[in-house]
Amino acid sequence: MSLDIIKSDLIQYFIIYKPQIFYLIETFVKIGILYGAVMTLAGVLTVGERKLSALMQDRVGPNRAYILGFTLWGLFHVVADGIKMIMKEDFMPKNANKILFTLAPIISLVPILFVFAFIPFGNYINIFGYTARFEIIDSNLSVFLIFAFSSLAVYGAFLAGFTSGNNWGLLGSIRAQAQMISYEVVMVLSILPVIMIYSSPSLSGIISAQGENISGFVPKWGIILQPLSFLIFFTAALVESKRAPFDVVEGESEIIGYFVEHSSMRFAGFMFGEYIEIVLFSMLISIFFFGGWQVPYLSDSGFTLGNISIPVNHYIKVILELLSISVKTVVFSCIFIFIRWTLPRFRYDHITKLCWKYLMPISVLNLVVTAFFVRAF
Amino acid sequence: MIRTKKLDEKKLNFWESIYIVEIVKGLVVTMRHFFINLFFPSRIITVSYPEENLPLIGNAKLKSLHRIKLRKDGSPKCVACMMCATICPSKCIYIEADETENYVEKYPKVFNIDMSKCVMCGLCVEACPEDAISMDTGEIVGGSYDRFRNYKNGGLFLTKNELFRHLPHETISKSGAANRLANKYLEDKND
Ligand code: SF4
Ligand code: SF4
Description:
The complex is a heterodimer of chains A (377) and B (191). Chain A is mostly helical and 377 residues long. Chain A has one domain. Chain A contains 13 helices and 7 strands. Chain A has a 3-stranded antiparallel beta sheet with strand order 5-6-7, with no helix packed on it. A two-stranded antiparallel ribbon of chain A has the order 1-2. In chain A, strands 3-4 form a two-stranded antiparallel ribbon. Chain A starts with a helix and ends with a helix. Chain B folds into 2 domains: 14-45; 67-190, Alpha-Beta Plaits. Chain B has helices at 14-17, 20-39, 83-87, 123-127, 160-163, 177-190, and strands at residues 67-68, 93-99, 106-114, 133-134, 157-158. In chain B, strand 2 (93-99) and strand 3 form a beta hairpin. The structure holds iron/sulfur cluster (SF4) (2 copies).
């Protein structure tokens, strides 16, 4: 009797709160998909970097870790490295600030992870009449929010060096401050023209604007309209991810870096944060300059070019779009790695000179010229 | 007076100073290596030791895995004199002697070499009066995680089962006084 009442009550609630419940499920599924993919890619990149660099230098790279005799081209080194990191001694220097020292790796990891919530990683999917957009937080100011949150990660690098009570760490932090804050400015300045051209400060707006074609057959991608912005943004992204040729912050051969006192999983936090940053910037580059999830000529009605049109099933279209942004992200992550293993380290004064004397004026000029053209036409 | 050294920095021309062309040139070099190695992995000259070995050149083969030479009748040439175990700097040879009925009267009942300790110095070969122990197999001892597992099973421990052997195409050795004694015993027995 009472059970029946509860049952009918539950059904009542379900009917009332149906949209909310669906939204909750949808959000959790999206979080699962996006963060699962990002974490997997970042994990694979830790080994992928060693493997790719080995191939570039005529070596074979890591290939020994195995499970049941299978080495899987060294992929199990992700697991082996993780276990190794956990087993290492968790060291805390005597004169370190205990709280901030512990907080530093978290601060450098969490904002970067949070930024992914704003990233649209697909268009939309329609399952039995229920429409879900592939975007965890739909904000119409997402471009600015992304830069606001991702620049918080710099605090992780500051705090790590300042609070560890180590002079090398301090040096690393000072370098991180100077280098990363200056390039933060350049990075946002280089994105402003893109926002102007697509006249939208939200990522999904920018992406859908890139679905159009210029004069019928050239995709209206950022790389074609704003190649200069692309170069500047790419350079700034290399600096922000603290990798060669801009790795004076770490400088393994001289100061080891801001995380010199961090060991075990604390160090793994920084290390993994760096790889997640690579994934993030690869995603942003593909969104701003390569159309994000857009597949050239693919729209709701299928492939269209001029008068020819091939209809495409909705689900195939969704898969193609998801594949599109994944492939772009992976390719750019690889380019990050290739650049790192090709170029030597910039001298410290050259980095700041490059930023303030060249990239900054060029990006301001680019901004002004773009503003003029956007206004004129 | 402070001594100074003046560095001549090469003046960059315009294309070099905007880096992009030079970066692309650098990438072409590394990418060429990358793709060649990706599609033709056999071009990488790395040898995956210990699964793979390069053939030993010249006399390098005389500092390889140990063995004990055998006589005509298949018994070991070793007479358990303990010379090798005594001279071994890393004390990795363990011998237990026992009696045999032939004229030599002594043979090693147990002959173990712990290859995880051996430094491949070759002093045991120099010391042996019977030319019994020798390092001419041409095999290279690989790394292992288990020093007490048998060599045949991927470990580093040699017992007489692995040590006492002929090499393929080997002519049976005639050297050594004890060897001649043992051969004489064989002849006497056959008469
Ligand atoms: S090679 Fe040297 S270390 Fe090895 S068993 Fe012979 S004497 Fe001992
Ligand atoms: S020195 Fe030669 S004969 Fe003597 S115990 Fe060693 S291997 Fe045997």
